[in-house]
Specification:
- Helix content is about 55%, strand content about 10%.
- The protein is built from 23 helices and 10 strands.
- α10 packs across α13.
- The termini are far apart.
Length: about 575
């Protein structure tokens, strides 16, 4: 009886979404402590600090600083980066300054800072997911909304990135909220329902928030607006439609200007550089895709489709393909689901036509994962009239999603589905950054764990920390290690593990003949993460390295490599 009363108080049916999101948050925080920092995050800190200083300079009518600073992050918006920096800094410095209990023990400011930065992201994701849940519940029903959130947080490429990706995950969530609002207000216009000023203001702020993450969302927003245009024209509602988006567009751009202080000083220059950075980026690197190196600026037609084919769980691929005949055979398909499907098709077609710069898998296209999830859920509703079969299919899908990623731990973002040969993903080899058909930990998220191994097992010698060096350097114990800069005359402590960060000239200047090296599994075409170039530094002509330790994770009972600690002789 007591248990029954407890369940009644909990009211599982009505509170399931909050229990689900709470569990998601707890799991995320646990994994955040195991994982470290990533390639771009030191840049986030720098960019946020500069922008805060810029705001201060402008408030003091000193515009020189606002004109002088440069960071490419300036052109991606600071909606989340700046408050994340402020929260992490104050939490680390003041609120939890002396936090030191069990798993929440820290040995450096960086360790604590990145932890709270990632906690902030998780909290933000939960807030947006709850908002999306309420929107879908109002536009569809509670069942659909719960299924959507459940499926979404079990997509490894999505949930894995929620641990640390401060750019692509917020963009994906904000974009989906925007297109939900486009659907909502398009329906109101169709039904001649008056849209109040308060609603227009909220919609404008939501679009402004998205623009303050990426302005390259504009063509995708425009594309989704166009999907509703035929029906709008048929109902002769074009004037109301144009008026709405002129109003919310103006509000969105106003918010972008308000939160971008450098635009106040040189608006033309800002827009020019923003377009160059977000639409015309000339990144020179490459990505290995199923054993083939694809240069970012020489994009192939199949790049995006290939990654979605290998990175999405197979059940999602099946459900997306099932949706194709459903569109033509079923007249009761939800209009928003159709529009989501059209978005997937058109974006892939545009990618094939224009072949924009792309790299690191699907990270720039994570915003498509939410429309994919919506379409997948719509496909399962074919069975909604056969309740027992429908429930079985749902349970089967959820079980499969849990099973296929369970062993990955905090490294869910490296997930590949069963179409990939697990044996060929990663291999240790003479190449500094590993061999194999795929990159795994290209963000460097496993750097904390490999630093932990170094702290416990190495106390003397010299260590070369290759890019991304902050992923390892942030977690090296400064009581037993010492960062060495290239002064040419430094005498290093032989009682400590001395290290440098991708500065190979130190090895030459200090006449070091043997050293340790940390790299991550990310095969490169014409370079390496350590910036070792035998043509410029002859000491590296005969370098030989052997593995000391390999940081791995498990994908479906198969170990895949994330990072390497090597011992090298010149």
């Amino acid at each position: 009886m007591k248990i029954n009363k407890l369940f009644e108080k909990i009211n599982l049916k009505d509170n399931f979404i909050w229990i689900l999101l709470t569990a998601f948050g707890i799991v995320n925080i646990y994994f955040i402590r195991k994982g470290g920092t990533t390639y771009d995050e030191p840049g986030y800190r720098f960019g946020s600090k500069i922008i805060i200083q810029t705001f201060q300079a402008i408030l003091n009518l000193d515009f020189s600083l606002a004109k002088s600073y440069y960071s490419d992050l300036e052109y991606y918006g600071q909606l989340l980066l700046m408050p994340s920096y402020l929260f992490a800094h104050f939490a680390s410095t003041y609120i939890f300054r002396d936090l030191n209990i069990n798993i929440f023990s820290f040995f450096s400011y960086d360790d604590k800072f990145y932890f709270f930065s990632h906690v902030f992201l998780t909290a933000y994701v939960i807030v947006l997911l709850s908002f999306i849940y309420k929107l879908i519940m109002k536009q569809r029903n509670k069942q659909f909304a719960i299924l959507f959130i459940s499926f979404l947080i079990l997509i490894p490429s999505f949930s894995g990135h929620t641990l640390f990706n401060l750019k692509d995950i917020p963009f994906a969530l904000h974009f989906f909220i925007v297109i939900l609002y486009i659907d909502k207000y398009s329906l109101k216009i169709k039904k001649s329902i008056i849209i109040e000023r308060k609603e227009i203001l909220i919609f404008g702020l939501i679009i402004g928030a998205l623009l303050n993450i990426r302005i390259n969302s504009i063509p995708f927003i425009g594309l989704f607006i166009l999907f509703y245009l035929p029906k709008i024209l048929e109902l002769k509602k074009l004037k109301e439609y144009i008026t709405l988006y002129l109003q919310v567009g103006l509000m969105g751009l106003s918010l972008l200007v308000l939160l971008t202080p450098s635009m106040w000083i040189e608006p033309i220059s800002w827009w020019k550089l923003a377009i160059e950075n977000q639409f015309l980026l000339q990144w020179p690197g490459s990505t290995i895709v199923n054993g083939e190196y694809i240069v970012a600026t020489e994009m192939t037609y199949s790049y995006l489709l290939t990654f979605f084919l290998y990175k999405l769980p197979i059940n999602f691929i099946i459900l997306i393909f099932l949706f194709i005949p459903i569109i033509f055979l079923n007249q009761n398909i939800d209009e928003f689901a159709k529009k989501c499907f059209y978005l997937l098709i058109v974006v892939n077609i545009l990618f094939i036509v224009f072949r924009p710069t792309a790299y690191d898998g699907i990270r720039q296209y994570l915003f498509l994962v939410l429309p994919i999830t919506y379409v997948a859920i719509e496909s399962t509703l074919l069975l909604k009239n056969k309740k027992s079969i429908f429930n079985f299919v749902i349970v089967l899908n959820l079980t499969y999603l849990l099973f296929t990623q369970f062993s990955l731990g905090p490294y869910k973002y490296v997930y590949f589905n069963e179409f990939v040969n697990e044996d060929s993903i990663s291999k240790s080899c003479e190449g500094f950054d590993g061999c194999g058909d795929w990159s795994t930990d290209y963000w460097g998220f496993s750097g904390k764990e490999i630093a932990g191994y170094i702290n416990e097992n190495l106390n003397q010698g010299f260590l070369l920390v290759c890019r991304p060096d902050a992923s390892v350097r942030s977690y090296l114990d400064n009581r037993t290690s010492n960062l060495v800069y290239n002064t040419g005359n430094d005498k290093i402590e032989t009682t400590k593990l001395n290290y440098t960060t991708s500065d190979t000239t130190v090895l030459r200047d200090l006449e070091i003949k043997s050293f340790y090296m940390v790299t991550f599994q990310r095969p490169r075409l014409n370079e390496n993460s350590c910036l070792i170039d035998a043509t410029k530094e002859p000491i590296f002509e005969n370098i030989k390295c052997e593995d000391v330790f390999i940081q791995t994770t498990t994908l479906r009972n198969k170990e895949i490599n994330l990072a390497y600690l090597k011992y090298c002789n010149l």
